[in-house]
Design a protein that fits this description.
With 623 residues, the protein is α+β, with helices and mostly antiparallel strands. The chain contains 18 helices and 18 strands. Strands 1, 2, 3, 4, 5, 6, 7, 8, 9 and 10 form a ten-stranded mixed beta sheet that branches. A four-stranded antiparallel beta sheet has the order 11-12-18-17, with helices on one face. The protein is globular, with a radius of gyration of 26 Å.
Length: 623
Amino acid sequence: MTMREIRQAYLDFFSARGHQILPSASLLPENDATTLFTGSGMQPMVPYLLGEPHPKGTRLADVQKCFRAGDIEEVGDNRHTTFFEMLGNWSLGDYFKKEQVGWMFAFLTRELNLDPARLYVTVFRGNDQVPRDEETVLLWKDAFVSAGIEAAAVDFSERDGLQGGRIFYYDEKKNWWSRSGVPSAMPVGEPGGPDTEMFWDFGPERRLHEASAFVSGPCHVNCDCGRFIEIGNNVFMQYLKTEDGFDPLPKQNVDFGGGLERLAAAVADDPDMFRIDVFDRARERIEQVTRVSYQPETFYAFRVILDHLRAATFLIADGVAPSNKDQGYYVRRLIRRAVRFGNKIGAREAFCGTIADAYIETYLDAYPELAEGRDRIVEEMTKEEAKFKASLEKGLREFEKLFSSRSAVSGVDAFNLYQSYGFPWELTEELAREKGQPVDRAVFQEEFKKHQDLSRAGSQQKFAGGLADHSEEVVRGHTATHLLHQALRTVLGAHIEQKGSNITPERLRFDFSHPQKMTDEEKARVEAIVNEQIQKDLPVHYEMLDLEEAKRRGAIGLFEDKYAALSGKLKVYFIGDEATAPSFSREVCGGPHVESTGVLGTFTIQKEEAVASGIRRIKAVLG
């Protein structure tokens, strides 16, 4: 089965079981100041898992785009990627363990035709506060028996390995979920619960993972030898932390997440994820550009290029341009690492644009926004590649200058080359090695950590007061963005669409689609319109409407394409008294908002700037 076929089979399977299918959210979190990227399928669903009713009901499923910046350095082995698709299904107080375990087993063994004899699972072992999850063990045993397999359940022991088991009890560090970690770390009032993970066995002959130092000792499903790969995790949100321990939640939730690429590797029975079909077209183009093939000597470089340019393609499509800050920093880093490794295996001509184009063609059906943004994606890739190649040449000259003056390059020099020219550590180290000189990696890492600490401190300060805290100042800013959104549409035209926002107690930031810089006159008109609505002290309220009714009444959507496939009830916020006049603003939004605009104060635009091709940003304050 191809990735496309697996993706569709999953959605069809859960649709047939009463689940409403949701479109993927953006890779840029909507009104979430705690993180730069959407890194899991659960992330956009957290408010609903914590009790907020979902407009689509209690049974939901989707395929979510995800990006994890923390995995950039891990890419190069046969299974790590920064971008991936996560299959997800949720029960919000509806079905629970029995249905989920049975459905998962059926989907894997009947829809994907995976051999049940090569499936293994883990469950929660329990501790002094929460009992072991024997209910889930019994359900898995019944599932395996239905396939003619007696599944033994054993306590995991690294010393003893598999022990002839198929179901393994692991501790709270592996098989427990809550936002705050293990049970002992959970605050009173926090929900959490056990989870059960599923693994595919590639076979004992695949035991020595090519990027692992694992050469001996017992094997187990969570070890690092490459024999097993996790293909899904079922979280059972079952308990509430209390003063006395844990009580059952009145409404128990299910959250499943499964990596689509990992499932495709299991279906293909090939532990190298970079051989699955979505990489084929891009891999062939790399081979054409470099005139080398995908083989053990080039695995690392190919995988970095394949992963990084796929991730950059999706991030640019969602509105991120390469830059030196925030999300743009990671797009720049991805492209530059890809160029570096392309150069290493013989690429002498520009190639990032053609690789991006290969991915656009590959994902055309599932993600049409890639084709819609094709010109912008290829342009950004090509510009960044050209810019880095020029920096690369300057960095090489600077390296030679440093080396000729001292016959060595220090760890501080290596960091300065990295910071000033985007020169990767690996390249400095490799060049120095060719000249018979080591570079002090510990010093480089120390300098790099100082840089990270400064950047992190700045990021925490920047995002500390995001909408997630629901403070009074932030809620005021959120309502002001609705006024700003409509004012921009009034002044510039109906083509204006929101592309992102970030709100702190100190200021609001609003990204929107517009092809050119705003004039001073346009900014002044927008500012005047917003302040006029504030002075009118308009009431703010919401109604739960279905999609057609919301559109009939003129509501616009926050990232409206996200809602295009929805047919349930949506929360629509109105600013204005419709009994006396049409509302000034009508917008699909989860809230929260102030009760009337009079509390907003004075709205002032501080800056209007470009953040990407066709995307502008306004920074404003409320006085």
